Amino acid sequence: MCSWQDLSLDFHHHASPGLARRGVYATALSVKTQNLGGKLYLVFIGLAVAGMGGIFVAWLWKGYASARETRQWQEVSATVLESAVQDRVLGPQIPREYSLKLMYEYPFNGKSYLGERLKLRENPWAKEKARAKGIAEQFRIGQEVTAYVNPADPSQAVLQHETKAPLYSIWFPCLFVIAGLGIAVKALLIRPSAEA
After folding, report:
1. Nearest 5°: phi and psi at 6?
2. Where are the alpha helices (DSSP H) in the chain?
3. Which end of the chain is more exposed for a tag (fewer CB within 10 A), N or C?
4. 3-state secondary structure of 95
5. pLDDT for the residue 9
């Protein structure tokens, strides 16, 4: 007559190999899933870092391209017609802002044009009045200055060039692009030992 102990031992003897195989398979599948998830996570992080770096690279390159563009424009003599500080208030809770109000006249190909921009970008607004006032004091009404005119569009002119500084700083975000792509590529190419 068999005892419960004998039946239990006989059950484990026959059932344990199957359960063990299923347990090993489940564990391997879990590890593989975790490895795939880890890969995708690293790829996402790498591409995000590279993308952020790429945005800054494009922004800095655009600034340098603008600075380089105006340096190729044609120089003409211009006369300052107005140079003052203008202000604005966008809302009751927003501080007053100040900007340069500039106007100058310049000739190009026998025609007379009016310019308002100091640099290629629009004259910026700032909360500090002294900043705009300092720039305005550099130009007196009636003063003869040099303007740089776009030959392709004579209505576009500036009195000063943008700085080339963005080009000297572009290497820094490039490091993020390289590092981010390196993380993504490494995550895709390196096969975890657990999958072997």
Report:
1. -65, -40
2. 4-70, 129-136, 165-169, 171-189
3. N
4. coil
5. 45
Q: What is the CA radius of gyration of the chain?
A: 34
CA distance 66 to 167: 11
CA separation for the pair 196, 192 (Å, rounded): 7
Burial 145-169 (b: 16+ CB within 10 A, else e): eebbbbeeebebbbbbbbeeebeee
Closest CA to 99 of 112, 114, 120, 84: 84
Cα 150 to chain center, whole Å?
28
Token match 């030959």: residue? Answer: 151
- Using the structure block, give the residue that is written with the tokens 């975790």: 34
Q: What is the 3-state secondary structure (H, E, C) of 30-66?
A: HHHHHHHHHHHHHHHHHHHHHHHHHHHHHHHHHHHHH
Give the model confidence (pLDDT) of 67-114 as tens digits: 788 888 999 999 999 999 999 888 888 889 999 999 999 999 999 999
pLDDT band at 7 (very low <50, low <70, confident <90, very high): very low
Alpha-carbon separation of residue 135 from 82, 131, 159, 193 (angstroms): 12, 7, 12, 65
